[in-house]
Every structure is written in C-alpha cells, then in structure tokens.
Design goal:
single chain, three-stranded antiparallel sheet
C-alpha cells in the first residue's frame, strides 16, 4: 500500500478516490486548469494534526472551579477536537465554549467541495486563537442552546467559521419549548431529557 501526501494532507487515490469522484468533478467545474494537467484530491483536516494535549485538558477540566479555568483547560483540547461544550457550576452559572482549530484562510471557500490547492489562495495561514472562538457566560436569557446551528453572526464576529450549518430548526424548536416551560413556572432538571 502506497500513501502519498502533500502539504495539504494525504492524497485520496484508488478505491478511496472513487468515493469522492463527485467532489472531484464538482471542483474541476469551478477551476481553470491546463488540458494536460492531472488533478489529485488531498485531505486536509485538523484531526490529522499532531501535538494533542487532550489528556491534559481532561485532567484540568475535572479540577476547575470557575468558567475561566474551564475555558483555559479547553484550550488544550482545541488542538484536537472541534466540539461545543456546556458549563454549569454549583453557584448557578452557565456557559458555552466552542473548541477546535479553525483555519484562517487566504480566501474562504465552499467547504463541501475540494478546493484548488495549487493556487495557494485557500491555504491555511494560521488558526483562530482559542480565546477568540465563540463563548458565552451567564447569558441574559438565562439559558444556552447548542444544536449544531450557526452560533455567530458574521456582522459582529470577525472570524470565518464556515458556511455549512444546520438550518437552526432544532435550536428554534428547543428555544420555543424552553420558553414555554419557563413561562409555566420553575424549570426542573427532570424536564430537560424530555426537551
């Protein structure tokens, strides 16, 4: 088995490439190339990057006593995982932290298709620092919702996180039901699984 790699990641070849032929076709429709040029697809992903400090992060998370320390502990996890984390403490505080290494690109692209790596315009320049990723602490509404929907407004958030989001239907449905529960009186933990 031969695995070739580029600065953008391993090349998808052979049977693996067959699974991505539609992506390759779609990408070739968007770019200009010489007739005799051969095009390959390389896979770039945060998950393929080394230097994970996940174990240290989990150890620190289990020993935090504040949102600031929780967020700092998650900064180590950001090198490996792109996830949404919820926070709650015994004093009634709640919070949200997004983790992950979000690439800063020369030019944002269409994430669902391969991008032309030979131009360099979509190359990862650096990454959004953990402290600049979306977070929230004790929001005025008194609740947080995370349902794989867009959590930022690009009119106010300067870093590009992508454009492939769930529609927000689940988040709106959860918000509506939660507001109904709140209007009926005290919210109880046993109500949350049903939500």
């Amino acid at each position: 088995c031969l695995c070739r790699s580029t600065c953008h990641g391993p090349l998808l070849e052979g049977q693996v490439l067959g699974k991505h032929e539609d992506f390759k076709t779609a990408m070739l429709e968007q770019v200009k190339k010489e007739e005799d040029e051969e095009v390959f697809i390389a896979y770039a992903a945060i998950a393929l990057r080394p230097k994970s400090l996940s174990a240290l992060s989990l150890w620190k998370i289990l020993r935090t006593d504040s949102f600031a320390k929780f967020d700092a502990a998650l900064s180590h996890l950001s090198r490996s995982f792109s996830l949404n984390f919820g926070y709650a403490d015994v004093d009634g505080h709640i919070g949200y932290v997004m983790t992950g290494e979000v690439p800063k690109r020369g030019k944002p692209g269409v994430e669902q298709y391969p991008l032309p790596g030979w131009t360099g315009e979509h190359d990862w320049q650096t990454f959004v620092a953990h402290q600049d990723l979306p977070k929230a602490f004790d929001p005025p509404d008194g609740y947080l919702i995370s349902a794989n929907h867009k959590v930022v407004d690009y009119d106010y958030y300067k870093h590009y996180l992508g454009q492939c989001w769930k529609s927000g239907y689940r988040a709106r449905a959860i918000k509506g039901k939660l507001q109904q529960i709140i209007s009926e009186g005290r919210v109880l933990p046993e109500q949350m699984p049903k939500l």
